[in-house]
Amino acid sequence: MTAVLPSSDVADLAALIHGHTVVALTGAGMSTDSGIPDYRGPDSPPRNPMTYQQFMGDAAFRRHYWARNHLGWRHMDSTRPNAGHRALAALERAGTVRGVLTQNVDLLHTKAGSRSVIDLHGSYLQVRCMGCERRISRIALAERLDAANPGFAESVSPATGVEIAPDADAVIENTAHFRMVDCESCGGILKPDIVYFGESVPRDRVDAAFAMVESADVLLVLGSSLTVMSGLRFVRRAAKLGMPVAIVNRGVTRGDDHAAVKLHAGCSETLTALVA
Predict the structure, then answer these.
(1) Three-state SS sequence of 109-164
(2) Looking at the predicted structure, is the pLDDT value of residue 158 above 50?
(3) pLDDT band at 38 (very low <50, low <70, confident <90, very high)
């Protein structure tokens, strides 16, 4: 097991990746500078995201979710990449970064220009029917929900006063008057094409992510506490292969014992310093 360097800084990270290819694994801390809150950061309020079992098992939970998401997804869609996203894309263009594995559903890496991105948990911009597997865009669903719920946004609060959670939900309470819609093809349950808590990342996506990690020399973790196995498993695979792991995160992570370099710092400031 590699000892953590408690006083690691950007120079240590630069020395580790110099002359090597890197795969980045990013979490919610990567997007906080774009105005999207994280789940477990030092200053984050307690959050109880909906589980897969709740969503599939209870129509009231689904109505509450879709009502919140109907407002929140637009806010996420309007967010823009921050300096960290742009720096990571620049490192890819320079040949240092081979690819990005992200636990985020905000598509900000793609918007920033990163080309080789695996969205481990899916994205906010696609919706899946749990019956026939048909997929539609979130924009198309928004048009149907607008028609079914005229004036809903105005009945809740002004858009500028709505808090947005990390999974594109708006934090609102009064959703009992919201009307859901079902799949137009089979009448099945519509669900965001996002991996929920309690749900597994598709096997083919996991396999592609492992292959990406194994193609690189260094695994760089950015803005993730590695609390859930969907991210931690890649750190464990890198450690098993003897691949150096670097972690940039505000606060402790479950992967710290595997880190050759650990920076208690923000992603944007660290990545822009690396580019400079």
Answers:
(1) HHHHCCCCEEECCEEEEEEEECCCCCEEEHHHHHHHHHHHCCCHHHHHCCHHHCCE
(2) no
(3) confident
70, 121, 258, 264: the catalytic one is 121
User: pTM of the prediction?
Assistant: 0.88
CA nearest neighbour of 29 among 270, 238, 192:
270
| DSSP character string of 236-275 | HHHHHTT--EEEE-SS--TTGGG-SEEE-S-HHHHHHHHH
Average pLDDT over residues 174-188: 91
Cβ neighbours around 218 below 10 Å, total: 24
Q: Calculate the CA dihedral of residues 81, 205, 165, 32 and round it to 10 degrees.
A: -30
Spatial separation of the C-alpha atoms in residues 219 and 239, rounded to whole Å? 9
pLDDT at residue 266 tops 90: yes
In angstroms, what CA-CA distances link 161 with 43, 145, 146?
20, 21, 20
Give the number of C-alpha atoms closer than 13 A to the C-alpha of residue 117, restricted to the C-beta side.
Answer: 22
User: What is the rounded distance in angstroms from the CA atom of residue 270 to the CA atom of residue 276?
Assistant: 10
Backbone angles phi, psi at 23, to 5 degrees: -110, 130
pLDDT in the model for residue 48: 64
Weakest-pLDDT range from 85-94, 170-179, 190-199: 170-179
Mean pLDDT of the chain: 89
All domains of the chain, ordered by start, with CATH?
10-275 (3.40.50.1220)
Residue 92: count other Cβ atoms within 10 Å of its Cβ.
22
Retrieve residue 154's tokens.
Answer: 């105005």
Q: Is 121 a known active-site residue?
A: yes
